[in-house]
Amino acid sequence: MKDVIEQRLSGKDILILGYGREGHATLKELEKYIPAEHITIADANPDSIPAEIKQNFRTISGEDYCKGLDKYDIIIKTPGISDSKLADVDKTKVTSQTDLFLQCYNNQTIGITGTKGKSTTSSLIYHLLKQSGQKAVLVGNIGIPAFCELDKISKDSIIVMELSAHQLQHLHKAPHIAVFLNIYEEHLDYFGTFNKYYDAKCNIFLKQQSGDILITDLTIPDIASKLSDYHNKIIDYGKNPNAIGGNLQGKHNLKNIAAAIEVAKLYNIANDIISNSILNFAPLPHRLEYVGIFEDIIFYNDSISTIPEAAIAAIEAIGNIDSIILGGFDRGINYNRLCKYLIHSELNNIILIGQAGERIGEILEEKGCDKSIYHADKMIDVVNYAFGNTTKGKVCLLSPAASSYDMFKNFEDRGNKYKELIVNHKKNTDE
To answer: What domains can you pick out in the chain, each with its CATH number?
Structure first.
């Protein structure tokens, strides 16, 4: 990593744009090789930058944190900051922690992206490698900034890297093995259009080098045109009919498993190790997570669901659903197919929250939905209504089909609040 940082950044005026967990990890690595006077940190929130950092480095915060960006030679952007903030900046100046990391470690990296399933697939691939005795490291959008794990990486390490569209925007090199799972409407508030979002995702293979490998589903809409100039090896994981589910429920997870199996084959992992590893793989929280049976109602938490396709997949995977909780931050996604699906489903209660919930409710009303529809302002109202109206012995499912950022820190915060209120419901009502 030292050689890449010194080659790209030495003698340059550098701006770290965004000082969250990834920005902190970037600074920690850069300050080993770059003098402090060449580093500036900028973040919208003044409280995000600690006092000791303000003492040792130039810092910018508040509403003007993105002004005057052109004066820097290099801008290391964190994923949460939209490119719209850099509209007037020479894009050759823009890089990211992911970009710098892959310039050093691309040949050792398996990169996984997709609108849905990338965390599960990344974790499963990592699990398969570890179970087979390989030296593996898990980093990326899974919640582990790549620079935080540098001391665990050696020349024989296999790096499993979950990659969001945000992280894929500014790349010079892509992973040696790229796994492109799927693509749906998502993050339109950030990218502006679906095509820009799709194009960012495609960097996972468009930036590959000769001899690299792409694992994808060739039935993904418009994927053929995206691959028209791609000359490396392509593996169609959609043709693997033998994936076994283990603890992972739903057809969508069978596809995630199929993609992971194709990676395992590239590393010559034995079939019995693959099978046993899949069967003992523990699902990640907030993904079709079984919460438990409370007051004779079965509760599931699928808070990771931020698009309509995920909610439909959850309903089909679990079954026996009487109540579903939908809505949150409205990113402008098309909910017509989901609403049509709900109207013709067997469930009885649709609990709606947030601006996305309001729009879903309007669509359902326009389509003449005869289900019970309840609009809530708080998660406690959601849970109370679910306990009071869900048929005993049936399922209440949180699968919002919308982002969480209107009311919660993230989807984990939303799912944890939901679970907490369920577990404590009887105690709260008794009081």
So the answer is: 2-95 (3.40.50.720), 98-279 (3.40.1190.10), 289-430 (3.90.190.20)
